[in-house]
Each structure stands twice: as structure tokens, then as C-alpha cells.
Specification:
The protein has 112 residues and is of the alpha+beta class. Helices cover 36% and strands 30% of the residues. The two termini are 24 Å apart.
Length: 112
């Protein structure tokens, strides 16, 4: 299955632009894996248990952890919402709330 990756607004792109080139390269590789592989390993894509339909793309580089929140639409669309550099075990509440709001906004805007 080939998935299409879309950005909702500029939240992910704003995060991506400020990363160094090696982190950008790692992000691109993980996004390509998600695009191409039918069953993505949980190491790279995991459901956020607190929110129905919300997932986090997991990137690790030089002992730094990065997370990109996303959701799926129409089977093969991966919608990138927002991202952050992980510094604690738990997802910061403000980051999680923002992802929930962006997911809600995306589906409200794209109702058919």
C-alpha cells in the first residue's frame, strides 16, 4: 500500500524547518517508510492511547527523540498535524491538546 502524506496547516513544517540536516534526513526516511510499508512497526508509528484515531510517528536520532502527531483519512492519507522534541516519558499536555484540536479541525474542515 502506498500512502500519501499531507501536512495540515504549517505546524509540522514549522517544526521541520528548524531541525538540523541530519534530523531532517532521519525524518524523511521514517516518513518514506510509513508511506511505503503496509504494516509499519510500532517502533516508528504508535497509536496514542489517550486519543481515538491519533498516532505518533516516532523518530530517534543521537539519543534525541522526536514525535510527529498524525491521523489517517480515507484509508491511505496520513495527515501530519504537529511535532515536538520529546524530553520526558509522558506527552506534555499542551502538545497533546494541540494535536487533538488540530485533528478535530482537520476533520471538521474536510467533511463531505
Amino acid at each position: 500500500m502506498i500512502r500519501q502524506i499531507l501536512f495540515f496547516e504549517n505546524h509540522f513544517l514549522d517544526f521541520y524547518k528548524v531541525q538540523d540536516e541530519k534530523v531532517k534526513f532521519k525524518i524523511k526516511n521514517v516518513l518514506e517508510l510509513i508511506r511505503q510499508v503496509d504494516r509499519v512497526p510500532e517502533k516508528f508509528l504508535k497509536h496514542v492511547s489517550e486519543v481515538d484515531g491519533l498516532y505518533e510517528i516516532r523518530i530517534e536520532y543521537n539519543s534525541n527523540m522526536y514525535r510527529i502527531f498524525c491521523c489517517f483519512d480515507k484509508g491511505n492519507l496520513v495527515i501530519l498535524l504537529n511535532a515536538y522534541q520529546k524530553k520526558t516519558q509522558k506527552i506534555p499536555l499542551s502538545v497533546l491538546e494541540r494535536a487533538k484540536k488540530l485533528k478535530f479541525d482537520y476533520f471538521n474542515r474536510n467533511k463531505k
